[in-house]
Amino acid sequence: MxxxxxxxxxxxxxxxxxxxxxxxxxxxxxxxxxxxxxxxxGEEAVAALRAEGIHASAIGFDAEKPExxxxxxxxxxxxxxxxxxxxxxAGIALADFFAxxxxxxxxxVLRRTFNVNLFSVIELTQVLLPLIRKAPAGRIxxxxxxxxxxxxxxxxxxxxxxxxxxxxxxxxxxLNAFTVHLAAELKGTAIKVNxxxxxxxxxxxxxxxxxxxxxxxxxxxxxxxxxxxDGPTGxxxxxxxxxxx
Length: 245
Description:
- This protein has an 8-stranded mixed sheet, sandwiched between helices.
- The chain has one domain: Rossmann fold (3-Layer(aba) Sandwich).
- 43% of the residues are buried.
- It is of the alpha/beta class.
- It contains 7 helices and 8 strands.
- GO terms for molecular function: oxidoreductase activity, acting on the CH-OH group of donors, NAD or NADP as acceptor.
- Belongs to the short-chain dehydrogenases/reductases (SDR) family.
- This is Short-chain dehydrogenase/reductase SDR.
């Protein structure tokens, strides 16, 4: 590897928004490593990226198996000596977005959703942060959602009013809080931490009725992963526009 070439790690990077993020970063000359649960699907994604001239590889990653996070750290430390970009893209939704369930959601759904969408993100970030500190300009991007915005949800004319699946939404609200707190802690360093709302995208999670095409799904993450030195930190963005918390 060229020691001047940046390296990025994208969790859940073998499909959907994660793969588009890897593609977008790779086309900027950044080496991309995608975290995958299924090795075969990971190799398929890597082959597709390499066919486009992108330097790409895959490594095993399962948000529900945090014991593997140290292995990921050791891989980046051994091969690259640092990590320039971390995109916490992996996430789950276990219930219907448009079925309000605050009074009925099960503890299992709550715990599983928070485990993947929040707790594993925090733990992985903590494990990899020493390597991000070694980068000249580290960037951390947390994949959130407008559904995590308390401001938008509570507006009388909210455009997301019907989408009240509490486990997913609350996990993204909490993820935004983590973004704010980590960015504040790292203020004065070269590291920037931001939350991204990718938009409602035609993915397995977003469904076929989503208004955004898959090719646009990674654009916000790519923007935040490549912010200049005078770019923002501790914010919540979609396509360059700040969103309400």
